[in-house]
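[Automated response] Your request has been received and processed.

Submitted sequence:
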Amino acid sequence: MAQQAKSRVVSALLTILLGPLGLFYTTMWGGLAVTALALVTAPTVIGPVIAWLVAIFWGDSLAKGSTTTRPVPEETSGRIEVLTQERKNQDRGVLVVEGLAWLALILLAVLWLPDQLGRVEGESALHFYLHWLGGER
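Generated structure:
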């Protein structure tokens, strides 16, 4: 599926004003991940601030990397291979940023959040969540 071009100005305005919710303009899954990160870390002040900043930079990165398909003039057809490689490198960068955001969310959910919600010392995060979701806490 072709990616629709995104405006960097619109992305910047949405993410600056709305934070993680503004990230939905450029990526749905990233918007969900960063919004969840902001909500999970809401008891702290620094967590939502970091999520807000991540949304701004990630949204700009994705908007900058989006392209539109246009007819290629014959005189530039020799550059197609170079442009294709540049696009692959940009896609790898976006995947790395998305992967790091998911990793941060998982680490928060496993390492930090259970302790904030009252995990007993020595209890695994999985065991804690099973009990917590089951309403035994």
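Summary generated for your ticket: Residues 26 and 62 are 6 Å apart (CA to CA). Residues 8-69+80-133 form one domain.
If you did not submit this request, please reply to this message.
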